[in-house]
Amino acid sequence: MEPAQKLTDRQKAVLTFISNSIDDLGYPPTLREIGNELGIRSTNGVNDHLRALERKGYITREDMKSRTLRLLRTPEGHPIRDEEDVLDIEFVDIPILGRVAAGALNHAYEHPEDHVRIDRMLVGRGKDVFGLRITGESMIEAGIHDGDYVFVRKQLEAQRGAIVIALVGEEATCKYFFPEADHVRLQPANSTMQPILVSHSDWRSTQILGVVVGVYRKLES
Questions:
Q1: pLDDT band at residue 79 under the 50/70/90 scheme
Q2: Taking the complete model, does pTM exceed 0.90, yes or no?
Q3: Does 28 map to a domain?
Q4: Domain ends where: 34, 54, 81?
Q5: Is 138 in the active site?
Q6: What is the greatest pairwise CA distance in the chain?
Q7: Of 81, 109, 126, which residue constitutes the final position of a domain?
Q8: What are the Cα distances from residue 60, in Å, to 27, 67, 69, 179, 186?
Q9: What is the sign of the dihedral through the CA atoms of 55, 58, 59 and 64?
Q10: Partner of 139 for a Cys bridge, out of 6, 12, 90, 189, CB 3.0 to 4.6 A?
Q11: Does the active-site annotation cover 175?
């Protein structure tokens, strides 16, 4: 690969935003997102910068579409040297954890049962994402069945209505999260089951292990 051509400050800002988006979300930003972030008023203006980045060998894309672009160089001009490096951008290794009891997430995270490599677009940012195997049918109306694997972004807070992995007693459970006036309601997606209600006095800040960001189901052959 030829030496990197020098970028203008504006071109480097565009490339850095693209690189950060791929790192944080798992996929490139749209033309509009690039424009909004950098104050570029028109998509034609954004395309001018992307064409310059293509011409200088920093990115490639199909059919002039921003979602199809791939990085060929880092914003510092270092080449992405081979297929393995490209795979590192497009795919991420997710640890599959076993049973997660109270206080045991860090230990389980450090000693996973297995790993699975998946497309970043399925889970967004790969960092701090882990997998758990679902047991039971409490979330079948949300499309999560017994034996499925859920991908979970590790975090202690969640928005109302999010599907979370939360600790109830000594066990982790997958439920919808609804904070109410005097309790937290963990709602199953199964009309035959009752919600779990936890009073605010009993709810701990560490009770949420993470938010579900994806589901994987192995089909029998």
A1: confident
A2: no
A3: yes
A4: 81
A5: yes
A6: 64
A7: 81
A8: 14, 11, 5, 45, 45
A9: negative
A10: 189
A11: yes
